[in-house]
Amino acid sequence: MGGPLAAKKPMPVPVKKTPVTDRRRDGRIDVAAAIEGEDERSRSMASVRRARERERRQQELQRLRNDGVKVVREVVVPEAITVQELANRMAARGGEVVKALFRMGVMATLTQTIDADTAELVVNEFGHRVKRVSEADVEQGLTGTADIDTDLQVRAPVVTIMGHVDHGKTSLLDALRKTDVAAREAGGITQHIGAYQVTIAGGQKITFLDTPGHEAFTAMRARGASVTDMVVLVVAADDGVMPQTIEAIHHAKAANVPLIVAVNKIDKQGVNLDRVRQELLQHEIVVESLGGDTQEIQVSALKGTNLDKLQEAILLQAEVLDLKANPDRAAEGTVIESKLDKGRGPVATVLVQKGTLRQGDLVVAGAEWGRVRAMLDDKGRQVKEAGPSLPVEILGLSGVPTAGETFVAVENESRAREISEYRQRVARDKQAAAAGAARGTLADMMARVAAGVQKEVAVVVKADVQGSAEALVVTLNKLSRDEVKVRVLHSGVGQITESDIQLAKASNAVVVAFNVRATTQAREMANRDGVDIRYYSIIYQVSDDVQAMVRGKLAPIQREKFLGYAQILQVFEVKRLGKIAGCRVTEGVVRRGCGVRLLRDGVVIHQGELATLRRFKDDVKEVTNGYDCGMSFANYDDIRVDDQIECYETETVAAV
Ligand SMILES: Nc1nc2c(ncn2[C@@H]2O[C@H](COP(=O)(O)OP(=O)(O)OP(=O)(O)O)[C@@H](O)[C@H]2O)c(=O)[nH]1
Description:
By secondary structure, the protein is of the alpha+beta class.
């Protein structure tokens, strides 16, 4: 019996596992010890379970990680960003970003800058959300337009005046400038900086872009239309709608900018306003009196009639447009004009469009950057800050930015450098792409154009001011025909340098020099390499010449032959003769009766004829290199020490 009973004893199974110590020597089991052993066993099993659970959780976490379940960030992407910075913003490793770029076919190191589009692809690849913002927003740490919009304040409208040649744009701009009550307080001294702001009697302000009016300056007008809020279309009442009026209408329409018609010269006898309205109607400009919504104001720029009404119309239009900007943020805007000034270095007129620009701010304008050393308004006054819609001239940039490019105030130098380097790279790439196509020599080119083989005339344009450079580019581009295109490889401001010649040589281009000269090295290089530099001071002559090239045949042309250079060492005042320049001939020869150009920093200040050429008190025929002489110009005497005089003769060159 004992056997079965014994079998029913509690815990038969654990007995087997009970350690020897749990057994009595007599072979019977100690129950207390067995219970104790049970506790220990269950404890160890629980810890195993816990360890297993821990492991399971860890595996799950890893699996989740591997599945990419992670924090989705909103990554702020500016116009340009370094790979490292992008990685930081995504909280990712730099190497991973480099790898991702590599997979996308972009070879970039951590310090290299990539554009916003590439950055956006990377951000998407990493599963984050992209937020594209402007530089200023990033620098201010702003995260969305909502933040920017909270502090919007009314800003002055920016107006461009357009119209046909001689319809009175300049007269109207001048007349409007005179209505400025602020200028009167400042003593009425105004300076041309490419734009000006008037404060009218009620204290309201209007900004006018002071763009030139000739047809060839279409580019300036087009650029004006892109920063401008509205266009005042000047139509002379006695002349009506003309080709450039139509062009202006097209520009305004293309830029989606509203128009106000200013019918000018109403002081003239027998003008027919209905005719003007009907002509405008033909171009889909329906003025209010014909039931349309385009305001029409009749003015006389000459007599100053109805200028107040025109200003009211502008302000009314501004109200409709609800023009606002936040002045409390880093400044952003557009370069209106730019030049290299002898005493002041690079000077740019900028129109602030958002935020407030302050003296001392770090700005990137185009590919140039620098700290704003000084700011001047259109009255020539120093200003410490400039808010939205105010045009100011800024000093302190590293170089001359291109008109029409944007500027932005940034927080630190490294950011400024980053944006500037990126923009330079983009510009270089563009230039290289443009230069990469055409090859050959000029004579070959002309022959090939004539034979119908060459399909392109390449040109490098250098001009004294940005406005002229742009105007030339537009003029030249217009000369393209179906069979032969005109391609402007490069356009810039300032003297012709060796790099311009290099570019022209590589692409078999002609260098068009508009009111500028070549440096000595560039001239030598051009002679050596057979690059043709053509000097001009009138736009239509450029277009005539290039048009002839497009036809593959240059008419016999008056070509200049360079004679020599003289440096002005002293300036004397002589009775009856006016100012005489005491010079030393520094290169070549100077001849009596030759053509002369007065150059200041490689820019042509005056072009004319030599009136007198003397050595000591005697009139002489010519003076050669190394000798001193006295020179005076016919009908011109704004000469200064250090100016250079270029002497040339004109000769007729046979057709190519
Ligand atoms: N009678 C009259 N003549 C005017 C008026 N406004 C301008 N003019 C004259 O028209 C001519 C051309 O005027 P501008 O102001 O130079 O014309 P513009 O459109 O700026 O010309 P470009 O700069 O050459 O395109 C000048 O002789 C002016 O004196 C006006 O209201 N009445």
